[in-house]
Write a structure and sequence with these properties.
Strand content: 15-25%
Distance between the termini: 13 Å
Helix content: 40-55%
C-alpha cells in the first residue's frame, strides 16, 4: 500500500493524535483511509461529508455519530472524509477529539488544504499529525509495497551507485505518457486519461472552488488554468496573466493561491539567502497533473519538481528534518531548477536536462557559491550505460535512476 501507511499506523497507536491526510483530488486518499480501516477491522466506520445521510448523522449526533458503525471487538477507528467543507469543521474536530480521544482513533482526509494553524479557541494545535499523499512516482511504482522512505543523508550518498534498470525506465515512460494519478496511470490508456482529465478539472473548478471559496468567476479561472501548462519552468508573472485576462491583479493572486490550496498546482519561491544578486520575488509554478504540458522538456522538469516536492513533504511529515524546496536565479539569468534547503541552508542542488550530458555552467556557478552537500544534474535521455559522472562535486545521473530512489 502507499508509502506513508506505516507511519500513520504508528502515529495512531503511539501518539493517540488525529491523522490528517491531505492531497489532490483523486490521488487515493479515500482508498488509503479505507484500507487502514479494513486492516483494523472497522470497514463500516467511514463518513463522507459529501454524502447527505452521513452529513445529517454527524450534525444530529456530533458526539456519538460513529458508535453504531464500530465493531466493538476490534480497536475503534473512524475516517472523516472532506469534513473541511463543514464551515465549523475545526471546532467540530476539536470537540470530538477532546471528548473521544481515549475511545477512538480519528483519520481525516481532504483535497482542500488541511494545514491548520493555532487560532483562537478552535485551535487544533497539538491534536493532529499531517501527512501529504502525492500522485504515484517512479520510486513508488518500482518498489511497491516494499518502498521505504529513506533518510535523505543516506539516499543522496547512494543515489548514483547502481545502473539504471529497465523497470525504472519503464515507470518513468508511463508517468510521462499518462500522469501519476491512480485511475489514468493504471488504466494505461490515453483515452482514459483524456476522460479523467476533463472530469478532474470540473471537480476542482465547479465543486471545490464553490465549496471552499467565495470565488464566482469560474469561467475566467478555467481560462487561466488552460494557460498554465505553457508557463511551466519559468518565473511566473501574475501581472502578465492579469493583462491577458483583463482582471485585477488581486484577483489573479487569489485564484492562484486558491488553486494551490486545492492541490491543483504548487509554487516554488526563489532561494536568495547570501546571494547578493539573486531573484527574490517571482515564483515558479508546477502542476500536480502534468499531462497537459506539451513541451517534453517542461513536462520533464514538472515531473522532477513533483518527485522532489513529494520527497520533501514525506521527510517533513515523518519527522526526518526541516526541508523546503526552492529554485535559484540571479539577475544575470543564471538559474538552477531546484534547491533543497535544510534548516534554510542549501542542502542539494538539482538541475534538469532533457538530453544534455555536459555539466551546466549555471549549476557549477551556484554549486561553488552555495556549497550544498550534494549537487546533481539529472538527465532524461542519459542512455542505459550511465552510472554516474562526477565533475567539480557535481554528479551526473540518469533521471530514471535518480527519481526511483526518491519516496
Amino acid at each position: 500500500m502507499r508509502y506513508i501507511i506505516g507511519d500513520i499506523n504508528k502515529t495512531l497507536s503511539d501518539e493517540r493524535k488525529m491523522v490528517f491526510i491531505a492531497g489532490p483530488r483523486q490521488v487515493g486518499k479515500t482508498t488509503l483511509a479505507k484500507t487502514i480501516l479494513e486492516r483494523h477491522g472497522q470497514p463500516l466506520a467511514y463518513f463522507n461529508w459529501d454524502t447527505e445521510s452521513h452529513r445529517r448523522k454527524i450534525l444530529k449526533e456530533p458526539e456519538d455519530f460513529w458508535r453504531d458503525k464500530i465493531d466493538a471487538t476490534r480497536p475503534p477507528m473512524i475516517v472523516l472524509d472532506e469534513i473541511h467543507k463543514y464551515p465549523k469543521w475545526k471546532r467540530f474536530l476539536k470537540g470530538l477529539y477532546d471528548l473521544s480521544k481515549d475511545e477512538v482513533n480519528i483519520i481525516v482526509t481532504g483535497s482542500g488544504r488541511l494545514d491548520v494553524y493555532q487560532k483562537g479557541g478552535d485551535s487544533l494545535f497539538g491534536r493532529y499529525s499531517l501527512y501529504h499523499l502525492h500522485p504515484f512516482t517512479v520510486g513508488e511504482m518500482v518498489h511497491g509495497e516494499e518502498q521505504k522512505v529513506m533518510q535523505p543523508d543516506v539516499l543522496f550518498k547512494t543515489m548514483a551507485s547502481d545502473q539504471t534498470t529497465p523497470e525504472q525506465s519503464e515507470a518513468l515512460s508511463s508517468l510521462e505518457r499518462l500522469n501519476g494519478f491512480p485511475e489514468p496511470l493504471f488504466a494505461g490508456t490515453e483515452a482514459r486519461l483524456n476522460k479523467w482529465r476533463r472530469q478532474h478539472r470540473q471537480l476542482v473548478i465547479k465543486e471545490d472552488l464553490r465549496d471552499l471559496s467565495r470565488i464566482r468567476e469560474i469561467g475566467l479561472i478555467d481560462t487561466m488554468i488552460q494557460m498554465l501548462p505553457e508557463k511551466i519552468g519559468s518565473p511566473i508573472s501574475l501581472n502578465a496573466i492579469r493583462e491577458d485576462l483583463q482582471v485585477a491583479y488581486g484577483s489573479v493572486k487569489t485564484w492562484m493561491s486558491t488553486l494551490e490550496r486545492l492541490y491543483y498546482l504548487f509554487e516554488l519561491r526563489p532561494y536568495a539567502k547570501n546571494l547578493a544578486r539573486a531573484l527574490q520575488s517571482e515564483p515558479k509554478m508546477y502542476l500536480f497533473d502534468w499531462s497537459e504540458i506539451e513541451n517534453e522538456g517542461f513536462k520533464f522538469e514538472n515531473i522532477v519538481a513533483l518527485h522532489l516536492k513529494k520527497a520533501i513533504d514525506a521527510w517533513n511529515d515523518l519527522g526526518m528534518g526541516d526541508f523546503d524546496l526552492r529554485y535559484v536565479r540571479d539577475k544575470e539569468k543564471r538559474e538552477v531548477d531546484f534547491v533543497i534547503a535544510r534548516k534554510q541552508k542549501p542542502y542539494v542542488l538539482v538541475e534538469c536536462k532533457y538530453s544534455d550530458m555536459n555539466i551546466s555552467p549555471h549549476l557549477n556557478y551556484f554549486n561553488e557559491r552555495l556549497k550544498p552537500e550534494h549537487a546533481f544534474q539529472v538527465v532524461r535521455n542519459a542512455g542505459p550505460n550511465l552510472f554516474q559522472k562526477k565533475s567539480n562535486g557535481i554528479t551526473l545521473v540518469s533521471a530514471a535512476r535518480f527519481l526511483s530512489q526518491l519516496p
